[in-house]
TrEMBL record:
Entry-linked InterPro entries: DNA/RNA_pol_sf (IPR043502), Rev_trsase/Diguanyl_cyclase (IPR043128), RT_dom (IPR000477)
Similarity annotation: Belongs to the beta type-B retroviral polymerase family. HERV class-II K(HML-2) pol subfamily.
Top enzyme class: hydrolase
CDD domains: RT_nLTR_like (cd01650)
Protein name stated in the entry: ribonuclease H
A Pfam family reported for this protein in Swiss-Prot or TrEMBL: RVT_1
PANTHER family documented for this protein: REVERSE TRANSCRIPTASES
GO MF annotations, alphabetized: RNA-DNA hybrid ribonuclease activity
Reverse transcriptase domain residues: 1-252
Documented EC number(s): 3.1.26.4
Length: 450
């Protein structure tokens, strides 16, 4: 491996807390972009041969923080509704990435079924690394780092998932009783004694292999607590008991509710909503659109759009695949530019572009009738590209036209904004004594089709 790829620059990033405490600083490693490309290739190969446990939600395909939060909330609500206690411990690992022993990494990779040649590849990536730290007075001399994973590396998250998968093999339970998001671990149980025993087993296994459980940041929460349920201890030291905890950015409450999380989301919204009386909501003046000028599509726009096509997109009834358009964009762009502009001039679109195949997609897991299917039209990829180009020209005209309270398919708006707007009006009424808000949820039947 080229020696230039082994150079690492570490700027000091302060996370939070006291500036005098070294533990409040995080060293993010800036690495060669070429090295990161090489890591991506290695990661793709490793993901094909390594199967990580279902309890791991971090850096896994089709999994995210939302899935872990949702699973935990559902479990908490189930026990709250059943008037039963649920004991949860939020385990925090101290300097998790920095503490992974290199020998432990090689061992876990081999035990996960990684071929020896790939173990050697990763070993070469970590071998003879030259690290310098950038600080206020300049850069330090080069030094070696012979423990831990690189923070800022493309490959490190998956390597850490492999390590955690092997370390937790002896102690983890099925999801959602055990859930991991990288180094964020949640252990749940129906009894305080059992969750305390499980926590001690986790501590023993992790610390035996070089990791360390943070005593100060690990938290214990009891959902639907009865009187005198007690506390949890770790090696004789009492774990901090909390009524709410920040889990993967979401505030989890011991009463199983999410009211505080909604208030936090509403207050941290990027929009500031100005109250508008209901009588004025739909009487706002609509600005006049700019005058329309003849539309001409440029060849470079077609070329750029073709090269951005997703090759996994389904091919339409005309059998023109996105792979063909993407890989032959330079040759096909002039042809389709001429076809598109001719269609605009003559107001006539080729019939093959307008042909679609209807694919019935189930709305539910259990099908009882035709209404349980959604008819999705599979259309030509060329036609979709044509539509995107025309839409990009029409945006200046169409953007001012929708109602101010329309949040769908508009730039810089999302479902979060719609929820926050609704919460804004609801909370306004809740703040006024004796006031209440009536809410009506309206659903249109087959709206697009009618």
């Amino acid at each position: 491996m080229p020696e230039e790829w082994r150079s690492v620059l570490v700027p000091i990033f302060k996370n939070k807390g006291d500036v005098q405490s070294c533990s409040n600083y995080r060293g993010i490693k800036l690495m060669s972009h070429t090295m990161k490309l090489w890591e991506r290739v290695a990661e793709a190969r490793l993901r094909k041969v390594v199967e990580v446990c279902e309890q791991q939600y971090g850096f896994m395909p089709r999994k995210s923080t939302t899935d872990a939060i949702f699973a935990l909330r559902i479990l908490m609500e189930k026990y709250r509704d059943g008037q039963r206690e649920l004991h949860c411990v939020f385990v925090d690992l101290e300097k998790a990435y920095d503490r992974v022993p290199r020998e432990e990494l090689w061992y876990c990779m081999r035990k996960s079924g990684v071929a020896e040649k790939y173990v050697r590849v990763v070993h070469y990536m970590y071998e003879r690394r030259r690290t310098v730290v950038r600080c206020a007075v300049g850069q330090t001399e080069e030094f070696k780092v012979e423990v831990g994973l690189h923070q800022g590396s493309t490959l490190s998250p998956f390597l850490f998932a492999i390590v955690m998968d092997q370390l937790s093999e002896e102690v983890r339970q099925e999801s959602p009783w055990t859930m991991m998001f990288a180094d964020d671990i949640v252990i749940c149980s129906e009894s305080r004694e059992q969750v305390e025993e499980n926590l001690e087993r986790w501590r023993f296994v992790l610390e035996r292999r070089g990791m360390k459980v943070s005593r100060s940041k690990t938290e214990y929460m009891c959902v639907n607590e009865r009187e005198g349920s007690g506390t949890v201890r770790l090696q004789g030291e009492e774990v901090k008991k909390v009524q709410e905890s920040k889990y993967l950015g979401s505030t989890v409450q011991s009463n199983g509710e999410c009211g505080k999380e909604l208030l936090i989301s509403s207050s941290s919204s990027s929009y500031t909503f100005i109250p508008v009386p209901p009588t004025q909501l739909h009487t706002l003046a609509t600005p006049h659109p700019p005058p329309f000028t003849p539309l001409t599509i440029k060849e470079e726009e077609v070329n750029r759009l073709f090269k951005r096509l997703n090759t996994r997109q389904a091919t339409g009834p005309d059998s023109v695949s996105p792979s063909l358009l993407k890989h032959c964009a330079n040759q096909l762009s002039p042809v389709f530019t001429d076809i598109f502009n001719t269609s605009l001039e003559t107001c006539h679109v080729p019939a093959c572009f307008k042909t679609s195949a209807i694919v019935p997609v189930p709305k539910k897991t259990k099908i009882t009738g035709l209404n349980d299917y959604r008819p999705v039209a599979l259309t030509s990829v060329v036609m979709k590209s044509f539509e995107r180009l025309v839409l990009s020209y029409l945006k200046d005209i169409t953007d001012p036209l929708p109602d101010p309270l329309q949040f769908t398919y508009r730039a810089n708006r999302s479902v979060d904004d719609a929820v926050n707007m609704a919460l804004h009006f609801i909370l306004q009424h809740l703040d006024s004594p004796g006031s209440y808000a009536r809410i009506l949820f309206v659903d249109f039947s087959s709206a697009f089709n009618t």
